[in-house]
Fold each of these.
Amino acid sequence: FLRLLEAQLQDQRREHEEEVETLKSQVEAMKEEMERQQQAFLQTLQLSPEVQVEFGLQQEITRLTNENLDLKELLEKLEKNEKKLKKQLKIYMKKVQDFEASQAMVQTERRRHELNRQVAVQRKEKDFQGMLEYYKEDEPLLVRNLIT
């Protein structure tokens, strides 16, 4: 039991160390990016106001262009997903129609089977010969059944 706990503790320690290393590398990358931006900002401040405005506009154009490309990529993904979902919908609709058709066939077969059973029962009843006993109040029903 102690070995298992030691192994778990070592695994957790290793994961923690890896996470710390990852975070350190991210911090280092952010520091470098911040230094780069600070240098760009200082260089921008040394420029004339007209050039600063132009530089700001260029950065905004670059940012908007990148954002536009990201949005186009997202749009393409969504369109592909829409096409895929439409195809799946068509497939499922076909399956539903096939299922409904098969259910209709099953219902038809059941009706035929029931009619065959009724016919078989009627044939058995026709095999009787002789007199029939009935109550007076059942006479209209009996006459109707004989006619049909």
Amino acid sequence: LTFRQLEESINKWSVDLDEQEKIFLNQATSVAAWDRLLVSNGEKIVALSDSVNRVKKDQVRLESELDFVRAQQRELEEMLIPLEESLQQEVNNMPHDTERDHTYQLAENIDSQMRRLADDLKEIIERMNAASRQHEATADPIAKIARILNAHTDSLQWAESSCTALQRKLDDVGRGLEQQRRDQDRSFRFA
């Protein structure tokens, strides 16, 4: 080997080494970028998982509250049946003031319970709407969950409208009792 051949070999190896170094640095930069992306996506997945778990807990709580509301609604409907029968009997047997007073008191109790139920339903709907607005701003899986919760909210609104209808019935019963009381008072005054 001559000095010149040695120098050419060294220059060639130096150029090869520079090219290999550039390739290595490019690949290392790409790997670092992918690593940052993976870490970022991992954090997003953890946050999304936490959100999904919170929504699931909210859904379970909402379902139990809805079951409670349904049970109370059934209870109220069952309470209305004897009230309506009692009112019918009251109309047929006008002289019974104690039964009428008892029925009127029951109607007032049911009315207050209905108002409390309506307030509870409004509060649940407001919380669900707030949760829905928070989750609408996030990714698609949350939007799916929001749609499910919206369906639950629609069910709650149906329950609220049913409660309102029952409230109207109770108001009618109360007005009927009050009218009967006035009519009976008039008939006793003129008798």
Amino acid sequence: QGKQKKVRKYAAMKRMISLRDQRINEKDRAKAPVKKKEDPSAIKEREVPQHPSCLFFQYNTQLGPPYHILVDTNFINFSIKAKLDLVQSMMDCLYAKCIPCITDCVMGEIEKLGQKYRVALRIAKDPRFERLPCMHKGTYADDCLVQRVTQHKCYIVATVDKELKRRIRKIPGVPIMYISRHRYNIERMPDDYGAPRF
């Protein structure tokens, strides 16, 4: 005769006594939560990001020609691959004067890429580019660009990076310029400035 197998109960737990049980001593028992009375004069706090008043009419009123465009490292590299002139292609896309802006950290990223990206570095040092100084440490540009467009809503961000695009889409009133089919396109742009709306 074989031994009968004992089936183990799945996820069996020992039953625990509640801390409010009558059998537990008074000093060991869990205290009932004391409700605080709400002060009607106190300022009610909510963690909701405050949108600036410039976005009141559904779009950014600070954004107008000449457009200031924050350029990312990969945007310059992809422009070279697509054989596009940066400033001219921006003007063709927006039908207005464009001022490409480059931050110190983006410049540092391009310099770090080395000899292979010397053409990108030469383009970034173009006198038509406006240089923006950075106060933060390191050369990680994504955080810097997101922080800049959150504080000042007067920029268009030019990037091909999917992660950076995802972060910028969460900020209201900031258009994104990207490259597709060997030309520049713009995402989330108000109709009023003659640019296409997507």
